[in-house]
Design a protein that fits this description.
This protein is mainly alpha-helical. It has a domain of 180 residues: MetI-like fold (Orthogonal Bundle), CATH 1.10.3720.10. It is 76% helix and 0% strand. The radius of gyration is 27 Å and the shape is flat.
């Protein structure tokens, strides 16, 4: 076979591929926005949707990392979850934790954002300091608060208490106190993000509206309730979705501070998921807990979206 014949055969085989590649490039030139959308879709499908669907699949099996074999068990894991004696306590702890952190974080963050939105001296420096806790990893914050509220005499809180002649406490062994410390630690960690989001929303409100309200004789209280709050409701609801879903999924601080103890009295769903999956190695049951968390996240998101639409 001659060299020209070989080249002709190669060209004929390569021609469909070249035409296909040229067609794809022409398609992308007509729709340049796909270059930005496709990577996001691939990311969501591969790192978010696929793990969620696979977790749902595993929840119908008895998969255990300590054993090789597994089989389908139907709804056994869900039945086991509903019959678990500590489930009501864990759900109650989760509700207190999520609602407490979300409420304090939104209210306090909104108040600080209102202050930072004023024309104050050194406000840029104050804004930079306000976001510092967001830089610190969550597990470091958990260890920091654990050292502060250590029950021994080496704990910082006990050292301060002892200087006033009072007796030291086992702070993290008292469930209500431990829950309050967990809530405070996560509020301190998540507050900067809320401040940034709400401050950005406040800065989008034109100052002309406030100036007009002053001319009309409106008081600062009336301006807040009739201008600021109505215009900030969409931003507040979006931030509320982010905060509640993030707090429901948060693991580092609850696990690092108490690990769910004593006797499951500070255990939340995220700690329960970690304990069952990575300590007990019961992947099937842990996936069932993950499905429960996913369902709660979806319910809260749908509820917030409906509220937002009704307000609009």
């Amino acid at each position: 076979m001659s060299t020209q014949t070989m080249a002709s055969i190669i060209d004929n085989r390569a021609e469909p591929r070249v035409r296909k590649a040229a067609g794809i490039l022409a398609f992308l030139r007509r729709r340049p926005y796909l270059a930005f959308i496709v990577p996001t879709v691939v990311y969501v499908l591969s790192l978010t949707l696929y793990p969620a669907l696979y977790s749902i699949f595993i929840s119908f099996t008895n998969l255990n990392f300590g054993y090789v074999d597994w089989k389908f068990v139907g709804l056994d894991n869900y039945t086991r979850l509903l019959r678990w004696e500590f489930l009501p306590m864990v759900l109650g702890n989760t509700a207190i934790f999520v609602v407490g952190v979300s409420a304090i974080q939104i209210v306090l963050g909104f108040c600080i954002a209102l202050i930072l939105n004023q024309r104050l001296p050194l406000r840029r420096t104050v804004r930079s300091i306000a976001v510092l806790p967001w830089i610190v990893p969550s597990i470091v914050i958990a260890l920091l608060f654990q050292q502060i509220f250590n029950g021994s005499r080496l704990g910082i809180a006990n050292t301060i208490v002892s200087t006033f002649g009072a007796e030291g406490q086992m702070w993290l062994s008292n469930p209500p106190v431990a829950m309050a410390i967990m809530i405070g630690a996560l509020v301190w960690r998540g507050l900067p993000l809320t401040i940034i989001i709400l401050l950005g929303g406040l800065q989008t409100i034109p100052r002309d509206i406030y100036e007009a309200s002053v001319v009309d004789g409106a008081t600062p209280r009336q301006a807040f309730f009739n201008i600021t709050l109505p215009l900030m409701k969409p931003v507040l609801l979006i931030n509320l979705i982010m905060v509640t879903s993030g707090n429901l999924n948060h693991l580092d601080i609850p696990f690092g501070l108490t690990g769910g103890g004593p006797s499951h009295q500070t255990e939340v769903l995220s700690v329960m998921l970690y304990s069952q999956g990575f300590l007990q190695l019961d992947a099937g049951f842990a996936s069932t807990v993950a499905v429960l968390i996913l369902g709660l996240n979806l319910l809260m998101t749908v509820f917030y979206i409906n509220v937002l639409r009704s307000r609009q």
